[in-house]
Amino acid sequence: MPERLPSISPVESLVLALIESRERYGLELVDLAGGRLKRGSVYVTLGRMEAKGFVTSRQEERAPGAIGLPRRLYRATPYGLKVRDAYQLLREALALKPAEAR
Amino acid sequence: MIPGTRLTTVSSRFLRAETFDLMVSPAIADLQFEAPTASRVRRLQSYAGVWRACCGALCQDIALTLKAPFVDEARRAALQSDVLTFAWLTLFQVCYYAGMLTIAFSKWSDLRAWLHTVLLRTSVLEALMLGAVALLLPALPVLACFWPRRDDARTC
């Protein structure tokens, strides 16, 4: 059976754009996205993206005695950026009108 | 108590360790980070966000569990074993409740007459719904106590 091609949704592309240059927390992404990412769905999206290999994450380093769960920082992987760029090219190619393609 | 402690306990009980770490734990961590300075509205939004993350993670886990038997023979066998155990435990309770009701009916004829009247008055659909509830009531505690085991390795 042929291996399935990776797929990337517009929301995943947006997340990659936000964490392309630096590590960010999930909450930061929600604030930066200006309503295009929801608080509840961002972590599910990030979890799925990590499973696909599009992002990598690590737990923050914490001061001794800090309470609560450690927060998680996300960064885009070169693979994720490559898939996003490839899909961007594909979308642009598919958006061409017949006259423009000549 | 730190906000999100109960949510952590409940969700870590029902989710795969990896799903919890990747999807729910960051949401709870952000909730706890924000809690000291957040307004009441913002805190409610955080809680709603965590619940949505829990639901999404649970859906993902269920999808993985259902998909697993189609990709792995060992998981197929494990799922069959889980389904059988689940069915056995539920049936055991159904028999228990049925036995108790039988004893109750034989003791109190009024109760029997009341149930007879209720069943005769209801339509077939309502009777089916009553039957479904009678099955679900024993199934819920079994579900809470015996959650089908999951493989923590992400291979599917």
What would you note in describing this structure?
The complex is a heterodimer of chains A (102) and B (156). By secondary structure, chain A is mostly helical. Chain A has helices spanning 10-18, 26-33, 39-52, 78-94, 98-101; strands at residues 24-25, 55-59, 72-76. Chain A has a three-stranded antiparallel β-sheet. In chain A, helix 2 (26-33) crosses helix 3 (39-52). Chain A is elongated. The model of chain A has no long low-confidence stretch (mean pLDDT 87). Chain B has 156 residues and is mostly helical. Chain B contains six helices and no strands. Chain B has helices at residues 5-14, 17-34, 40-71, 73-107, 109-121, 124-145. Mean pLDDT of chain B is 77; it is low at 152-156. At the A-B interface, helix 3 of A face helix 2 and helix 3 of B.
Descriptive key words:
heterodimer, A: 102 residues, mainly alpha, 3-stranded antiparallel beta sheet, 5 helices, 3 strands, B: 156 residues, 6 helices, 83% helix, disordered C terminus
Give the percentage of residues in beta strands of chain A.
5-15%
Helix run count of chain A = 5
Main sheet strand line-up of chain A: 1-3-2
Task: Tell me the number of strands of chain A.
Answer: 3
How much helix, percentage-wise, in residues of chain A? 40-55%
Could you write a compact summary of the structure shown?
Chain A is mostly helical and 102 residues long.
Any chance you could write out the topology, listing elements then pairs?
The complex is a heterodimer of chains A (102) and B (156).
Chain A: H1 10-18, E1 24-25, H2 26-33, H3 39-52, E2 55-59, E3 72-76, H4 78-94, H5 98-101
Antiparallel strand pairs in A: 1-3, 2-3
Helix pairs in contact in A: 2-3
Chain B: H1 5-14, H2 17-34, H3 40-71, H4 73-107, H5 109-121, H6 124-145
